[in-house]
Amino acid sequence: MSDSKFLKRIFMLHVLRVINYERKKKANKVDFREKFENLRKASVVALLAIIYFKKNLHQFIGKSEKYAAKEIKRFCRQRGYWQGFPILIASGENTQKVHGHPTNRTIKQCDIIMVDMGLKRIPRYFSDYCSDVTRTFFLGAPTNFQKQVYNLVKDAHDLALNKLKSGVRGITLHKAAQNFIQSNGYDLPHGLGHSTRRYTHGAPFLSPYDQWSVLKENDNITIEPGIYVPKGHPKLPKGHSPFGVRIEDLVIVRKSGYINLTSNKKITLL
User: Fold this and answer.
1) pLDDT score of 260 more than 70
2) Which of 8, 68, 81, 155: CA 20 to 30 A from 137?
3) Are 80 and 122 in contact (CB under 8 A)?
4) Which residue has the higher pLDDT, 270 or 143?
5) Would you say 74 and 86 are in contact if contact means Cβ atoms under 8 Å apart?
């Protein structure tokens, strides 16, 4: 091969390398925009489903948790979304279960309710990322003890969010929330959060089982502290029913903070 042909080939390889680099860089940008957009829309539909449930409680009181889950599923399907994982509707004492599932228990007038759900677009179920959100609310007036526990979970949730930014280790956030909850006499029996992937849960995990993950800009993760007060818990007042509280938001990590995709304030901006 002549020197001129050799140099020409080297030059073309270099050009192709630059073109391929720019193509990958562009593809990564598009991927993030698409991921952000489908997560944002899926999060809004999930929040709207929870709001629909709360505004139409008269339809659900006296019905089972399974019935409520079926109706919420129908609401989401009518809007082009399907559950990424089984929808959790827990009521009353069933909210004390860390990973429960809808049962035949009848929803009562003064129940505490926990709703945990994640959605994906039906036509792109296997290519979209999954949303994830949990809300705990009260059908009637909460007891003073329930208010206290709810506020502790909310404070742990906000504490973790205030420390969230790129470069932070997931275990650091978990320990911050766990230490706060434990200092108030309770426990955090599960990880603080996780990423949501095409197959729902995935790394990075905010968990004692993941000591290595460092959050990067544009990671999508959940923040979901919870307190569960079973029968026999030393802080459960005598005669008080057992219950649990979990609050979960899905966020996008940024250099100096986060974007909360499941904030109720986001709905009015769409």
Assistant:
1) yes
2) 81
3) yes
4) 143
5) no
pTM: 0.86
Kindly report, residue by residue over 102-145, the tens digit of the pLDDT: 999 999 999 999 999 999 998 887 878 899 999 999 998 999 99
**Amino acid identity of 46?**
A
CATH code for the domain in which residue 149 is found? 3.90.230.10
DSSP-based three-state secondary structure for 100: coil
How far apart, in whole angstroms, are the C-alpha atoms of residue 43 and residue 267? 9
Q: pLDDT tens digits for 186-243?
A: 999 999 999 988 767 888 999 998 888 999 999 999 999 999 999 999 999 999 999 9
Task: Name the residue among 159, 222, 151 with its Cα closest to residue 186.
Answer: 151
The DSSP string of 43-86 is: HHHHHHHHHHHHHTGGGTTTSBHHHHHHHHHHHHHTTTEEESSP
Cross-strand pairs, 228: 244
Query: What's the rounded Cα separation, in Å, for the pair 237 and 252?
Result: 39
Is residue 252 within 8 A of residue 219, CB to CB? The reply is: yes
User: How many C-beta atoms lie closer than 10 Å to residue 36's C-beta?
Assistant: 16
Find the domain containing 13 and state its range: 3-269
Apex CA 162: angle with CA 170 and CA 194, to 5°? 30
Does the pLDDT of residue 20 top 50, yes or no? no
* Angle subtended at Cα 167 by Cα 193 and Cα 217, rounded to the nearest 5 degrees: 75
Burial class (CB in 10 A: 0-12, 13-18, 19+), 96: buried
Query: What tokens were used for 119?
Result: 């959605």
* Count of structural domains, the chain: 1
